[in-house]
């Protein structure tokens, strides 16, 4: 799968987020990178920022956007075909967005989004 096709899969996954939920996302950008960090090369996605549940009254003063990064090569390595990639991207996007809303990995695994 080319980078452009992968980015389209990420875009499609974002389009599937319910409008009410997407409207509640605040100061967050979603990026695609080819490779995961060297210390975790199999990582599929990463949320970096301050979850909405932890933001205080003065949080936004000078804050950079939160980042959700979806990693292409680890996802491609995990999946056997295009359909699996699209499904895994959708799960990863939901998983990382959930972190933006303050939902931790244990809860996500319990809900089947781990």
From TrEMBL:
<dbReference type="InterPro" id="IPR038555">
    <property type="entry name" value="Zincin_1_sf"/>
</dbReference>
<dbReference type="InterPro" id="IPR010428">
    <property type="entry name" value="Zincin_1"/>
</dbReference>
<protein>
    <submittedName>
        <fullName>Metallopeptidase family protein</fullName>
    </submittedName>
</protein>
<dbReference type="Pfam" id="PF06262">
    <property type="entry name" value="Zincin_1"/>
</dbReference>
């Amino acid at each position: 799968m080319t980078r452009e096709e992968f980015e389209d899969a990420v875009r499609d996954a974002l389009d599937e987020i319910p409008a009410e939920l997407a409207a509640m996302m605040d100061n967050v950008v979603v990026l695609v990178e080819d490779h995961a960090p060297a210390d975790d090369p199999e990582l599929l996605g990463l949320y970096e920022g301050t979850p909405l549940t932890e933001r205080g009254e003065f949080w936004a003063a000078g804050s950079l956007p939160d980042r959700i990064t979806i990693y292409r090569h680890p996802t491609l390595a995990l999946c056997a075909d295009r359909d699996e990639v699209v499904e895994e991207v959708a799960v990863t996007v939901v998983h990382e967005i959930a972190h933006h809303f303050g939902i931790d990995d244990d809860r996500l695994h319990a809900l089947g989004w781990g």
